[in-house]
Amino acid sequence: MVRTFDALTDGSIRVSVTYLEAIREAQAHVLENDERVFIYGQDIAGKFGGAFKATKGLAERFPGRVLNTPISEDAMVGTAIGAALEGMRPIVEMQFADFSSIALNQILNNAGTHYYRTNVPVPITVRLPSGGTKGSGPFHSQSMEGLYSHYPGVIVMTPATVEDAYTMLIDAVAIDDPVVYCEHKYLYYHLKADALPKEKMPIGQARIVRPGRDLTIVSYSAMLHESLAVAKQLSAEGYEIEVVDLRTVKPLDTNTVLASVARTGRLLCVGEAFPWGGVTAEVIARVASEGFHLLDAAPGRVNAKDTPIPYHPNLWSEHRPNAKTIAAKARQILAE
Amino acid sequence: MAKSKMLQTAERGAATLKKAPHERYIEAFRWMWLARVLEEKLASLYRGGMITGGVYLGRGQEAVSAACGMFLDKSKGDVFAPLIRDQAGRSAFGEPLIDVARTYLGSRLGPMRGRDGNIHRGRPLDNQLAMISHLGAMVSVITGKLLAKRMKGEKGFVGLTTIGDGGMQTGATHEGMNIAAVERVPLVVVATNNHYSYSTPNDRTFACADLVDRAKGYGYEGYNVDGTDLAACLDVIETAVKRARAGRPPQLVVASTLRLAGHGEHDDASYVTEEIKREPFAQDALMRTEKFIVEQELLDRDALQQMRAEIAAEVDEAVATAQQEDAPHASDEEWCGLSTRSLMDQFA
User: What is the mean pLDDT of each run of 10 residues along chain B (348 residues)?
Assistant: First the structure.
């Protein structure tokens, strides 16, 4: 399908759209359609358009609404909170998810508590370029969705597809509550779709990406694609793996997961974040608690290793879950 | 940094008192007295076990706090982000006494409905922001309010936030003060150095000669003021508010006082030295103001008596009302941290 994307500065016709372009297009869409929206972040304005070019062309197209900030993650989010209380719909771009640790206080203690404390919601969207890429090392690779989900008062989105990257970001801005939007850097260029979606799935609903009968793999974000690769691989061995994309890790669509486990009797959770606690542990805890009788084997999970994220590709590729480690764990559960 | 005319005015202290308009001075004194009486009442309720959680007093800081509230005008869209010791300023800005009583006593009818207590209260839609305990967090929040007002095309508004010698040292304060200057929003930051950050004196809190020296580094206009001198506080803060409103860079006012109470009422403040209690900034601003009013006969004894009686009655009524109100009940609490009910995570 051929389509013109207005926000692309070169005005060229594209026959496909990447995950990154979908994020840029979603921002162009909300800037175009909602005068309350502005984008606040480091190096996002001017011709530069952000460390990953997620806002390229937007500052010129929407003057005064794509604003560079100092290197002040706390104050970026604090300012967004104040603007949201004044009726705006700010999007904050963190340059890397890792740096949002500086803004944890504003996101979780300020924005996350505000509605419960005062009855006034804080409609901010904080974009976190998340996850590992080759050579990025301990401070430019983190996956922080589990950490944000642990606290009340925020919604945590982890889109795994071009379509979700687009529609969920538009939804994030429309939602009255704070949204942490975890966009995966590995997917920025690797993932392409024919066109931007015309339809969307509701927020808070997981998707069965691949139906199966022998094992449920629950995943999200970039790990969805590793999980799908494993499902394809095991299919050749005669196993039919059902793959669930959580889409949002908070709220977590427990019902869809339980329904899948009811069909397969086996569960494997795959996440790129550190192993202690987090999304995969939460999914297993819920299934064990509410669907213990559905399980024919002990549920398993694959996460990153419990060390800082290493720089060298030889180490990094084994630190994160990969098709090999996921397949090994899947076979172990299937053999039980 | 060259001292401004305003700073010199402030330093003249008592000399400016006679020039201060009497009505304004009396009005400020009334807010100060109200804060003192209300806080004494809260402290007494706390000692009697009637208040759960902390009680934090602004004793000694009433002059600077009252001045913070008095020059803000809600009809102009002004925003106030008060902190822990700002009862006088909150009242002057327009916070009803019943909000205070309800929050401290945990009434379900208060602005926080039992979900948060004491000084965290606020009415964000009424431009009084609800502080969190993490110091400095509100500097960037009020900056965002002001930035958004400008984006919406509003004009003539100003924001004021307060901080202390302790709070001035956080990273959030630094980021917030800097971003306010970068955005050039009409902001006044009033830092009251009450010489103790909880129990820690200034020599373990900062190493610059004077906190006001930071104004230049941030691109602010900065002033010192004697926080025990009401007329000086009124002059300096009025001018800072006017200058911010007129489009000058953000303003930093550093007031000097001694905290004449514990950090909270749980704290006997035994670490406050006898030596520091003899410093000029250790004077009780309220007593100093009252003495001046009596000496200068700005109010006669009958009028003073009547004012005190009125305030005592107002405070008693607010407390009595809140005491009769229902507390929140866990059984009918919604337990929902999101306004988007449909997106609440469902836990088993």
Answer: 37 40 92 98 97 96 98 97 98 97 97 96 97 98 98 98 98 98 98 98 98 98 98 97 98 98 96 98 98 94 96 98 97 96 90
Instruction: Inspect the interface and report whether the beta carbons of B125 and A121 lie closer than 8 Å.
Output: no
Bridge partners, A180 (sequence order): A126, A156
Residue extents of the structural domains in chain B: 5-324
Mean pLDDT of A294-310: 98
Which ipTM did the prediction report?
0.94
DSSP H or E segment with residue A67: strand A66-68
Query: Chain A: nearest CA to B281, how far in angstroms?
Result: 33
Mean per-residue pLDDT, A167-183: 98
- Spelled out in words, what is the top-level CATH class assigned to the domain A3-193? alpha beta
Q: Which of B115, B129, B182 sits opposite A116 (nearest CB)?
A: B115
pLDDT tens profile A52-67: 999 999 999 999 999 9
CATH 3.40.50.920 location in chain A: 207-335
The answer to whether the CB of A180 falls within 8 A of the CB of A130 is no
pLDDT of residue A13: 52
Q: Count Cβ atoms within 10 A of the Cβ of residue A184 and give its class: 0-12 exposed, 13-18 middle, 19 or more buried.
A: buried
The minimum CA-CA distance between A221 and chain B, rounded to whole Å, is 19
Span(s) in chain A for CATH 3.40.50.970: 3-193
pLDDT score recorded for residue B21: 72
Query: What pLDDT was estimated at residue B347?
Result: 84
The two tokens of residue B38 are 């209300």
Class at the top of the CATH hierarchy for domain A207-335: alpha beta
pLDDT number for residue A88: 98
CATH superfamily of domain region B5-324? Thiamin diphosphate (ThDP)-binding fold, Pyr/PP domains (3.40.50.970)
DSSP string, B166-215: TGGGSHHHHHHHHHHHHHT--EEEEEEE-SEETTEEGGGT--SS-GGGHH
Q: What is the pTM of this model?
A: 0.95
Report the alpha-carbon distance of residue A173 to residue A151 in Å, rounded. 20
Distance (Å) from the alpha carbon of B91 to chain A's nearest alpha carbon = 19
Q: Catalytic site residues of A?
A: 140
Q: What span, in angstroms and rounded, lies between the C-alpha atoms of A40 and B223?
A: 31
Which residues, other chains included, contact B52 with Cβ-Cβ below 8 Å and sequence gap of 6+? B106, B117
Name the token pair of B204. 């373990």
> CA-to-CA distance for A50 and A60, rounded, in angstroms?
13
Q: Tokens representing B225? A: 């003021």
Residues 104-163 in A contacting B (C-alpha not used; CB under 8 Å): 105-106, 109-110, 112-121, 152-153, 155
Spatial separation of the C-alpha atoms in residues A52 and B114, rounded to whole Å? 45
Q: Are A78 and B339 within 8 A, CB to CB? A: no
